[in-house]
Amino acid sequence: VRSHIGYIFQAHNLLEFLTARENVQMAIELHRGISRREARTRSEAMLQLVKLGDRVNHYPQNLSGGQKQRVAIARALVNNPKLVLADEPTAALDSKTGRDVVDLMQRLALEQECAILMVTHDNRILDVADRILRMEDGYLITPQSPANDEMEKAKVERQIEN
Q1: Both 16 and 75 in a single domain?
Q2: Could you report the per-residue pLDDT of 100-109, keeping only the tens digit for each?
Q3: How many secondary structure helices (H) and strands (E) does the chain include?
Q4: Count: domains in the chain
Q5: Is residue 28 classed as helix, strand or coil in its secondary structure?
Q6: Stretch 57-76: mean pLDDT, rounded?
Q7: What tens digit of pLDDT does each residue of 75-104 get?
Q8: Is residue 151 within 8 Å of 127, Cβ to Cβ?
Q9: Are the beta carbons of 98 and 122 closer than 8 angstroms?
Q10: According to the model, what pLDDT value does residue 76 have?
């Protein structure tokens, strides 16, 4: 089961003593039967997809917040999971970088045919969702007044289900 799930954490959780490539490659090497050469090739290819091909040998301290989050996305998607769990992937990013990261996640998920379950407080990115569930005080809820709902302000024109 673990091999079919990718994780993107609120904090990128990159290992500071590993390069961007090594952080992604580590996720591949956890699976048996893949050579180091193949793991290296796949990790570099994934970093190219997230537009970090010129940063493969950079350490996290030499990457911006958006670049670190893109390394985390590459790490989550490099094994072609069927499901990606994303916990506040835009929390530490400015609005433009956050939007770029979510658009990238959406594009890669479509290309790899995987589902993303994202938890967020960022209403500006809700329009990429196929389905939106709201939680309040530990319960799934349906807004009582969609006209006043924050998601309406974000111009989300999707059905809210509970």
Answers
A1: yes
A2: 888 888 888 8
A3: 5, 5
A4: 2
A5: helix
A6: 93
A7: 998 998 999 999 988 887 788 888 888 888
A8: no
A9: yes
A10: 92
In the numeric block, which tokens belong to residue 144? 């009582």
Residues 144 and 99 in one domain: no
Question: How far are the Cα atoms of 71, 93, 95, 98 from residue 151, in angstroms, in the given order?
Answer: 29, 20, 16, 17
48 & 74 share domain: yes
126 within domain boundaries: no
39 and 92 within one domain: yes
Helix/strand/coil for 141: strand
Sign (positive or negative) of CA dihedral 31, 43, 90, 110: negative
Give the CA count within 13 Å in the CB-facing half-sphere of 157: 0
Assess whether 17 and 65 both reside in one domain: yes
What are the DSSP calls for 29-88, one per residue? HTSTT--HHHHHHHHHHHHHHTT-GGGTT--GGGS-HHHHHHHHHHHHHTT--SEEEEES
One domain for residues 68 and 37: yes
Q: What range defines the domain where residue 71 resides?
A: 2-121
